[in-house]
Description:
Layout: H1 11-18, H2 20-29, E1 37-41, H3 42-47, H4 49-59, E2 64-68, E3 78-80, H5 83-94, E4 99-104, E5 108-117, E6 121-130, H6 138-144, E7 148-150, H7 157-173, E8 178-187, E9 193-199, H8 209-217, H9 221-237
Antiparallel strand pairs: 1-4, 2-3, 2-4, 5-6, 5-8, 6-7, 8-9
Amino acid sequence: MLNLPYVGAGVMASAVGMDKVMTKKLASTANIPQAQYIEILQGDYVNNNEIVFIEVEEKLGYPVFVKPANLGSSVGISKARDREELIKAMNLAFEYDRKIVIEEFINAREIECSILGNDEVKASVLAEIIPANDFYDYEDKYIAGNSSFHIPANLPEDVKNEIQSLAIKVYKLLDCSGLSRVDFFVEKGSNKIYFNEINTMPGFTQISMYPKMWEATGIGYEELIDKLIVLGVERFKERP
């Protein structure tokens, strides 16, 4: 609106990337593998919650993860192991959004990939998050800090290559620019890959995963900032 260059995705990619349901729907059109999920609107839940419970239990089973559709930093996310916990989790998620996502549980490793570029896109080495709790929640991300990580992630080369390829595919699918972090699950035992979500404006402190992955790839923090500024100016110049 100010007609100034900026770093990162445009309005459309930012909006779609923020909405987990819209991202999942778009990913499904491109045959990107992801966990089974159910989208629930607050009005539908209030009008007939029994139908919601039955759909969750028949389609997904327990445990499940319940998330607000539009939020970040794991705020409002809960793991539910039975109907009682599901009700609590849904009530919490609805405090943050009128639309929520309920996902099947996958016994998986949490893998992240950093993406850099506009039209020519590069993927970093991968990182694995080792959560201290059931999942990498807000408290652990910003307060306790008990989780650990491995950079680069210890995965077979073909799995690494496939994740990097999928990360770039998701990035281009949303027409992102500048930077994003794309998160995946890798099922334990089978190494089956599932797309989780994209963060079109990932954390960027010196201890955040996005710059850490690029540092391990060979691009330091200051150089990375320079590259992002150049990418922002390039995208600005492409505007009519």
